[in-house]
Amino acid sequence: MTGCDFLKEMTADFRTGGIEQFSRIFDALYKNYTISQDSEITVECNPKTTTKEKLISYRKLGINRLSFGVQSFIPEELEFLQRVHSPGDAHREINNAREAGFDNISLDLMFSLPNQTKESLLYSLEKAVELHPDHISSYSLIYEPETPLFVEYKAGRIKKISDAKDAILYKTTMDFLRNAGYKQYEVSNYTKNGKKCFHNLNYWNGGEYISLGPSAHGYLNNRRYWNYRNNGKYFELISKNQLPEEGSELLTVKEKLIESE
After folding, report:
1. How far apart are CA 89 and CA 50, in angstroms?
2. Which residue of 158, 221, 227, 251 is most buried, as measured by CB atoms within 10 A?
3. Which pLDDT score is estimated for 19?
4. In CATH, what number is assigned to the domain containing residue 61?
5. Per-residue pLDDT reduced to its tens digit, 193-226
6. Residues of the chain with pLDDT under 50
7. How far, CA to CA in Å, does 12 sit from each of 34, 223, 235?
8. Taking Cα atoms as reference points, which of 229, 205, 206 lies closest to residue 217?
9. How many CA atoms lie within 13 A of 163 on its CB side?
10. Residue 253's pLDDT is what?
11. What's the structural domain count of the chain?
12. Sequence-separated (6 or more) residues with CB below 8 Å from residue 254
């Protein structure tokens, strides 16, 4: 089977979603690749759209790690971030994940939101730790160009917090999680019981990875490449038995050293 044939098989019902899509993807992966017995297989979960039944199905497929995009436990902050879930949704589905048999659960949080205070950040951190996740990723809010958030910021409707306050909130996060028993092993990642994310470590250690899906990036033989972001263009090339690469670059020794710091 060629790379394009595999992508065709893997993305055949991409538009339909659901556990059937996951099953089809994993069937294709196991058919075309040798998957190590100790592989870490992670799925990112939206607390609003996750269900206990779906989590049980994930576990049966061999998925052994979940990452929940919680971001905050404060409703107003979730509304600002345009997240559709509530704090209650996050609590329920993380507990459901434990009941479904997952013993490696990560939780994403965000800080440096406009109007966020040290107290409100500590509240979210406390609520996160109460759920006993094995891993926590805590990111500073970034205003990415060509996003609705960036447009609002450029129009003056959103005001960034200062670099000084960002530093305070970052230190608040580090101190709180360290005192809660979490070890920081990367800029934004903390773990308990030694459950570092293999995916993150592979990036930091300069490991290779394959891109599958629209906008995905891959890295092989010192060459970083990326697929088309546009779904229509991506599927058009797949249907023509062509790899959906939009661009690539060769990394120099200096660039690799910088990215591994």
Report:
1. 9
2. 227
3. 87
4. 3.30.750.200
5. 899 999 999 988 889 999 999 999 999 999 999 9
6. 1-2, 6-16
7. 21, 28, 9
8. 229
9. 0
10. 86
11. 1
12. none
